[in-house]
Design a protein that fits this description.
Shape of chain A: globular
Order of helices and strands of chain B: HHHHHHHEEEEHEHEHHEHEHHEHEEHH
Number of helices of chain B: 17
Radius of gyration of chain B: 31 Å
Structural class of chain A: alpha/beta
CATH class of the largest domain in chain A: Alpha Beta
Number of strands of chain B: 11
Helix content of chain A: 25-40%
Strand content of chain B: 5-15%
Shape of chain B: elongated
Number of helices of chain A: 15
Strand order of the largest sheet of chain B: 7-6-5-8-9-11-10
Number of domains of chain A: 3
Radius of gyration of chain A: 24 Å
Distance between the termini of chain A: 66 Å
Bound molecules: flavin-adenine dinucleotide
CATH architecture of the largest domain in chain A: 3-Layer(bba) Sandwich
Number of strands of chain A: 20
Largest sheet of chain A: 7 strands, mixed
Oligomer: heterodimer
Chain lengths: 530, 515
């Protein structure tokens, strides 16, 4: 209620922080590195001997991998009435890169955290969102979104020059020239968004395989985004920083490791429409895309065996024979299926398919960015000078891409929260980066995370109660120049002998929910057809 | 010769010892008066009416000193030891008096009892000091000199105290720290006497423990003083801060001056006891009196119980459910005597159920149908509050409102925050309600606005208002519907979770008044 007319303008938030900080907390920060499920992955990679099968199972269809692509395929098969389907998943739970965690304070994502509202042309996704109540109705074909799921305002802020500005495009301390270049780039992106190729298709679509085949646009895939920007006279530092941030955030790649086509795709593919939101609106939940993943998971009634890692696929007379290792029981299960769908990344397929004679040139072409995600639980919320705490909070000029406030969509704001902090490794060799990050201890990570957060929030340590960390060695496929429209990728999607099928976001080249979702549907359709 | 020199040094030592004791008279006199002033000020801060408070505190204090003096006659044995013990006690009790009273204010229904217990206890102990000290000193000095010197120092100390208290201590240290500092002085006297006089050898060690413990306790109090009441905060308010607390959700501050009591939440005025009746009568009666028959009422926010007080004027109100986020708030307004007087013990009524939960979550889960819903949230000054004014929130209210029920929302000032006010109305319309906007004048806030909302137009103000109202009557209910041109309707966006239009309007419109 009410504000006094001549209110003495005291900001309590600041003193709150100071007041609490000087109480001096010595309590240790809790937390650990969660689910280092890569150990079996490494056994597969290193060709370790697994025990001989002690059990054999027969099935019609076997789905290997329960990420979004696998779950989406299962949903589609179910819709079409397929029977005799089972799924195996290496991890303790399905979900892959869309898993989430939960503590007293909030649910929080372990990786994927949002979905932009899709283009109405993406009918399968629109249908799914309607099924699960994310879309609540339509007016003249334009969806109305559930307002609890649309990202609440304020959405994004950027810490630059000691101040939190609204929005992520740098506004502070930039020159006229910067401003002009930013405007020019945005205009160019806008033009690309409505551009159509000579085949009448949009130049940039999601799923990307629906994009125009016009050489005019596809040729952009052969050069790097940096090259493109350079050729177009973009030199503004803040602009380049922003574009690189976008590539890092969505693709885990830098300006050099992103193709110009993929770079443009980020800005030119989103044509979402809603009756109650702008076209740039995003959907998000405290648990991130874990919300969508759970909906897919719930939908699925096929048997799922978690903790079971496929390590070898063989094409036999009686069917496709898949050996899976049960890390808990330390035993091997052989599953013989009429058809197998590999919803696993290509760096895994490389080892799984060793016994299958097939030309798959894709393996040398895939590059994955390692990611580290930390969920930081605080008994206070980081505000700072300028714009209030947002959903997405980014700091100018840092390696990390900032943090998402996991509680943002909660309707109750408490004086505590979980910050989901993201660090992609886009520079140097991903292999070296992987080695380095696997060797770090939780204490190393805590230090690193706190140092990074303290840059914009000095004194934040005093509020942090726990830091949990997850290391994604092969977090995201990088859309390096030549990958998306290279022949290897399209070939890698092709089934082997009409029996071994493939679906995974890395077969699109950009690691987003929509791609994984439609990869699953495409593969399920192929299986049903053949 | 040798003997003479010895005697001389002995004499000198004795003189020095006496000088020291006289200096202690000065210190303890200052301390004694300070405690009295602290108690008097505290009483007028917390209870108001400073003339009465000061004179009763002084009276009781002096009387208690009398008791102390009388009791001193009963004290026998090692007088120095007694004196040191008393010093420690005075330091501890006097030193802790202000912080304890501030802390207990919230918990104790009968604050006066606590107050006067402190006054009596300190008075008695201080009353013991001087007579015992005089008995210690009397061996060395002639009686007339003794009386003359002791009282000289006593009165100098008193003068000093009465000057530095208002000029230095209250403005620069604040009450809590002042009381702690002088507690430490008292104990320092005890410690120095213990160290200086050889005859304390036997019990020096034993008394050293309580001396050290008390000093530690008072120093710890210093550290916590910042928590009890931050110094900078006391400067931020025009009136005396009589209570403040940081809860999990907000900072509550109660202030008072001679005329009124004010509650601030996060620095924003919540009410002034002088004119809150205007605000709360206007919030409750236009809507509630128009509903016939037995009614179920829901109050969201309003943990001060003042809106509930107005609701309880209607005998046909069957039940009131109050949902307020902060348990500390509802607890305070259910236990403190002064605040209970203000809300007429409304939150203790058997008809009232208090729920401490977030209103948004609660409304989404509850299935009761209410006839009258009062929404008394803080102004939409931040994004989390903005959610409680969103179209989504009002849509949820539809599920808990009976068919012919009425909702009323406090909707900030239509004069200062014209867009904000109309935005609340448009947002309720977007959620499918018919609205009746109205406004009144509350001196503490200025022109203030409310929005009534219902499923279909059905508001018929009648004559049967409860008796005893000071502000709302039929004529006021007519005039409150008229909006002069400077407050008349403007077009605004609808406030949604994903645009927070209201918070942005509100920030823009109030900014010139806040900074
Ligand atoms: C840090 C990070 C942030 C991200 N943020 C977003 C975001 O905000 N929005 C967005 O849309 N996307 C985001 N993504 C992309 C995300 O990867 C996709 O949205 C999607 O979850 C990918 O699904 P998938 O099925 O293609 O792959 P995966 O999630 O990789 O699924 C593969 C599954 O196969 C399992 N598996 C692997 N090997 C075996 C084996 N041998 N046997 C059995 N099972 C096996 C794995 O355990 C896993 O469950 C993010 C990714 C990362 C790493």
């Amino acid at each position: 209620m009410k504000q006094v007319l001549a209110l003495v303008g005291v900001s309590f938030a600041g003193r709150y922080l100071a007041g609490c900080a000087d109480v001096g907390r010595d309590r240790p920060i809790q937390g650990g590195i969660v689910g280092s499920g890569s150990s079996i992955g490494h056994m597969i990679r290193d060709g370790k001997a697994f025990p001989p099968p002690s059990q054999e199972v027969r099935t019609g269809i076997l789905i290997i991998g329960g990420g979004i692509s696998g779950l989406s395929a299962a949903r589609w098969l179910q819709k079409k009435g397929a029977e005799n389907v089972i799924m195996v998943e290496m991890g303790d739970e399905t979900g892959g890169n869309s898993i989430f965690g939960q503590n007293k304070v909030s649910a929080y994502p372990w990786a994927a955290h949002y979905l932009p509202i899709p283009d109405v042309a993406n009918t399968t996704l629109i249908e799914f969102l309607t099924e699960i109540g994310v879309i609540t109705g339509f007016t003249d074909g334009v969806p109305a979104y559930n307002e609890y799921h649309l990202c609440h305002d304020p959405e994004e802020r950027l810490y630059i020059d000691g101040y939190w500005q609204e929005g992520l495009i740098p506004k502070f301390g930039i020159t006229r020239e910067d401003e002009a270049q930013i405007a020019r780039f945005m205009k160019q992106a806008e033009d690309h968004r409505s551009a159509k190729g000579n085949d009448g298709k949009f130049a940039f679509c999601i799923p990307l395989d629906a994009s125009s085949a016009d050489e005019e646009y596809r040729k952009l895939d052969r050069i790097s985004f940096r090259q493109f920007l350079n050729d177009n006279g973009y030199t503004s530092k803040p602009l380049l920083w922003y574009l690189e941030y976008c590539c890092k955030d969505d693709y885990g790649s830098g300006l050099d490791s992103t193709s110009a086509w993929a770079g443009m795709h980020y800005f030119a593919s989103r044509r979402g429409k809603a009756t109650n939101a702008s076209s740039s609106a995003v959907l998000t939940w405290p648990e991130g895309n874990g919300y969508l993943m759970s909906a897919l998971r719930k939908h699925n009634t096929y048997p799922v065996r978690t903790g079971l890692a496929a390590f070898s696929v063989a094409n036999t007379d009686t069917g496709v024979s898949v050996d899976c290792y049960d890390g808990g029981k330390k035993s091997t299960v052989r599953i013989v299926a009429d058809k197998v769908l590999l919803c696993t990344p290509q760096h895994v397929n490389k080892y799984l398919l060793k016994q299958v004679n097939a030309e798959r040139s894709i393996y040398d072409k895939v590059h994955y960015a390692p990611w580290v995600v930390a969920n930081v639980t605080c008994d206070g919320v980081p505000e700072g000078k300028g714009t209030a705490l947002c959903w997405d909070n980014v700091v100018y000029g840092r390696q990390s891409v900032g943090y998402v406030f996991a509680n943002h969509q909660n309707l109750v704001r408490k004086n505590e929260g979980v910050l989901t902090w993201y660090l992609p490794f886009t520079e140097g060799s991903p292999k070296d980066a992987r080695k380095a990050i696997y060797n770090k201890t939780i204490e190393d990570w805590k230090k690193l995370v706190l140092e990074d957060l303290a840059y914009a929030h000095p004194g934040i340590e005093a509020f942090v109660t726990r830091i949990d960390v997850k290391v994604w060695g092969h977090g995201m496929i990088q859309p390096v120049p030549g990958y998306v429209w290279g022949a290897d990728r399209t070939e890698a999607m092709r089934a082997i002998d009409g029996r071994i099928f493939f679906a995974h976001s890395d077969l699109s080249g950009i690691s987003i929910f929509e791609e994984a979702f439609s990869q699953g549907i495409r593969a399920a359709e192929e299986m049903l057809a053949g | 010769m040798v003997k003479g020199a010895d005697e001389q040094t002995q004499m000198q030592e004795k003189k020095q010892g006496q000088g020291l004791l006289l200096f202690s008279v000065f210190v303890i006199a200052t301390c004694g008066l300070i405690y009295e002033l602290v108690a008097g000020t505290m009483a007028s801060y917390l209870l108001g009416d400073s003339v009465t408070q000061f004179s009763t505190v002084i009276g009781v204090y002096l009387f208690s000193m009398g008791i102390g003096s009388w009791l001193s006659g009963q004290v026998e044995g090692d007088l120095l030891k007694w004196f040191i013990r008393i010093e420690i006690l005075v330091g501890l009790v006097g030193g802790c008096s202000a912080p304890s009273m501030f802390l207990l204010f919230e918990h104790v229904t009968y604050f006066r009892i606590v107050l006067y217990s402190f006054v009596v206890l300190t008075g008695i102990l201080v009353g013991l000091e001087i007579p015992i000290l005089m008995r210690i000193l009397k061996s060395g000095i002639e009686f007339k000199d003794l009386v003359a010197r002791v009282f000289t120092f006593d009165y100098i100390g008193a003068l000093l105290a009465s000057l530095i208290f208002p000029l230095l201590l209250v403005p620069y240290l604040g009450l809590i720290r002042t009381s702690l500092v002088f507690g430490i002085f008292n104990i320092a006297v005890a410690a120095y006497l213990l160290y200086y006089f050889e005859e304390t050898m036997r019990y020096r060690r034993r008394l050293l423990v309580p001396v050290l413990l008390s000093v530690v306790a008072l120093l710890a109090g210093f550290v916590y003083a910042e928590r009890i009441m931050s110094y900078s905060e006391t400067l931020a308010f025009q009136d005396k801060v009589i209570y403040s607390k940081s809860t999990h959700y907000q900072r509550m501050v109660l202030t008072r001056n001679n005329r009124e009591l004010k509650l601030f939440l996060n620095g924003n005025l919540q009410f002034s006891s002088l004119d809150e009746y205007r605000y709360h009568e206007a919030l409750v009666h236009p809507g509630l009196h128009a509903l016939k028959g037995s009614k179920k009422v829901l109050v969201l926010g309003g943990g001060d119980g003042l809106a509930v007080r107005e609701v309880l004027r209607y005998p046909d109100v069957a039940s009131v459910t109050l949902v307020d986020l902060d348990p500390a708030m509802t607890q305070l307004f259910r236990s403190n005597e002064m605040l209970l007087q203000l809300n007429k013990r409304s939150l203790l009524s058997p008809k009232v159920r208090v729920v401490n939960d977030d209103a948004f979550n609660w409304v989404r889960q509850d299935t009761t149908r209410f006839d009258f819903i009062i929404i008394d949230f803080p102004d939409p000054s931040n994004y989390s509050l903005g959610k409680l004014y969103s179209s989504k929130f009002y849509e949820e209210l539809r599920h808990v409102l009976s068919d012919s029920g009425i909702i009323v929302v406090q909707a900030t000032s239509p004069l200062i925050a014209r867009k904000s006010f109309w935005c609340v109305g448009h947002t309720m319309q977007a959620a499918g309600f018919v609205t009746v906007p109205y406004h009144i004048y509350v001196p503490s806030f200025g022109e203030w606005g409310y929005i009534m909302a219902m499923r279909n137009y059905g508001w018929h103000p009648g004559a049967d208002l409860p008796t005893g109202l000071k502000f709302i009557d039929r004529n006021v209910m007519k005039s409150m519907l008229l909006f002069p041109p400077d407050m008349s309707e403007v077009t605004t966006e609808v406030n949604k979770l994903n645009n927070q239009a209201l918070v942005n309007y509100f920030e823009d419109e109030w900014a010139p008044y806040v900074h």
